[in-house]
Amino acid sequence: MKKLTRTASGLNGSIDIPGDKSISHRSVMFGSLAKGKTTVENFLPGEDCLSTISCFRKLGVEIEQQVSSVTIYGKGMDSLKEPSDVLDVGNSGTTARLMMGILSGLPIHTVLIGDASIAKRPMKRVTGPLRDMGASIQGNQDGNFTPISIQGGNLKGLNFVSPVASAQVKSAILLAGLQANGRTTVEEPFKSRDHTERMLKAFGVDLEVDGNTISLDGKQELKSDLHIVVPGDISSAAFFLVAGAIVPRSRITLRRVGLNPTRTGILDVLKSMGASLTYSNVTEDGPEPYADITVETSELKGVEISGDIIPRLIDEIPIIALMATQASGTTVIKDAEELKVKETNRIDTVVNELKKLGADITATEDGMIINGGTKLEGAVLDSYGDHRIGMMGAIASLIANGETVLENEEAINVSYPSFFEHLNRLQG
Ligand code: S3P
């Protein structure tokens, strides 16, 4: 439980945004599959990414980790060994689903488990097509929920049209496809984050991207002598981008924020709502662009958020909803049913928690409607074990009258272990 109060003097100064969670996971996964040494700088030492390291160690990969520096001594996919223990993905959907793709291609038996939230998250979207490729998969409710048991190997390529724009689904099928006989193609309705495609290319994989369709031939090897510099996570930066815009008398700089265009929907929304953002030190020479972003207190107005921008900001909707409570007019968020299958049902948890603070917010089937311009009042909030709901509550406390109590704040360690340290620093 954490007691938080309104900030008197605004947020000022600068912070280094911790490494991107999606890219950190992939650096360990692909480094473990590759032949050769991979070193990773600015790795995110959050609980989710530590779950990925622990899974690959159990598969026999030698991995050294010191906070945000990681070295992976990869010996190729064939060297991964059948573990004597279950693989525990903790709270991490990315670990669960990408591992399923990798494990389906290996001639070994594995069992994946996770925490209470993972046990409620749908896995059929991945286990269905992996079965079609030839993997033998069992799990609760016909392979839709953990625990999931996989006997992999001997896969054939698949032509897969995904009903959801999900990088986890796309990546799982591509990672299985890499080990299959023949060619694998994944088509998605909208473009989801493309870190897998960018990083596989860096590991020497030949893949073809044509709009929202990705294809690759099976039986390709990953090679490494790579040093990966992970940019800051825009999904973590989002909490402070919004804080800087809504807390009076603020001006903060967030350093090394990843600017992959499949992730920058939050910046488009901030701009269209009227936030003052400036960019400096833009770096575009590596596989993932990044820059420093300065945000200042701004007059905001409501907007409609729907369609193909949704996958580009899906993880930022909780903090966008808080921002909308401070904007003039109405903000409508549509086409975001995927929120229901995140670490919590984020339509319910966002609406519940913001209502406790006095916000005018209504849940809809595929999103929410927020009437802005509300003065928030302190309340007892809960993260419900969801890191992004916890951080939304903590940022809300900065503008709410009186005291806000945040229960289960430790969930924030999943993606941003230094969150409160950064918040204290910006409060001066
Ligand atoms: C992620 C993809 C997204 C995102 C998650 C991380 C990834 O999930 O919400 O936090 O690293 O591939 P979906 O693929 O389910 O949309």
Automatic annotation (TrEMBL):
It is found in: Cytoplasm. The keyword Amino-acid biosynthesis applies. Belongs to the EPSP synthase family. Its EC number is 2.5.1.19. It is an enzyme of class 2 (transferase). The lineage of its organism: Bacteria, Bacillati, Bacillota, Bacilli, Bacillales. 3-phosphoshikimate binds at K21, S22, R26, S166, Q168, D315, K342. Catalyzes the transfer of the enolpyruvyl moiety of phosphoenolpyruvate (PEP) to the 5-hydroxyl of shikimate-3-phosphate (S3P) to produce enolpyruvyl shikimate-3-phosphate and inorganic phosphate. Residues 8-423 form the Enolpyruvate transferase domain. It catalyses: 3-phosphoshikimate + phosphoenolpyruvate = 5-O-(1-carboxyvinyl)-3-phosphoshikimate + phosphate. The active site is at D315 (proton acceptor). Phosphoenolpyruvate binds at K21, G93, R121, Q168, R346, R388. Keywords: Amino-acid biosynthesis, Aromatic amino acid biosynthesis, Cytoplasm, Transferase. Its main location: cytoplasm. Monomer. This is 3-phosphoshikimate 1-carboxyvinyltransferase. InterPro entries: Enolpyruvate_Tfrase_dom (IPR001986), Enolpyruvate_Tfrase_sf (IPR036968), EPSP_synthase (IPR006264), EPSP_synthase_CS (IPR023193), RNA3'P_cycl/enolpyr_Trfase_a/b (IPR013792). One of its GO terms (molecular function) is 3-phosphoshikimate 1-carboxyvinyltransferase activity. Pathway: Metabolic intermediate biosynthesis; chorismate biosynthesis; chorismate from D-erythrose 4-phosphate and phosphoenolpyruvate: step 6/7.
